[in-house]
Write the structure tokens for this entry.
Amino acid sequence: MLKKTVAAILLAGTALSFCACTADSHGPKATTITFAQEFVDPTTEESVVTIETGELFETITLKGSGEGEEFQFKYDSDILQYTGQGGNFYLCGSTATECYLHIMVQSDDGTLYDMTKESVMGYILKQFKLVSGKRALSYATSEDNVYNILIESDGKLINVRVGTADKWPYSVEQIANLIDSGF
């Protein structure tokens, strides 16, 4: 209950001060969460998702990059909504086309985070530790205001594309912590 109240206050404050990510003055448009949607891993182009609705959270099964890999992802439906389109999530009360999060999960034997970090070294915006103690970084490889977040997470690498990053009412670190807490 406290979590719902805090989320509601956060969202109300955001809507009043920013009208975050919406050009529509008629208020936010909710997205209906549907069942049996598909999360497509761009490296395998296959996967199946199941969604279970709960009181505070929805759980979705994300297909990993390896054969037969599935990862449970629990997200706070007061803050994030799932669009049901290729693993995209968006901030409640915003448009899914501007403020999307696309979560990709890869197996990591402990070297993938460092290898990816090396490959984007000239594009790194910030490196930080998450609340869980895991390493994370944000980078942008182009000028189109789409950021990437890389999260090292026990046996997997979580790569998140953040659409229209400056429209989010949360910092990249806050978004990374929200996502990390869902795995």
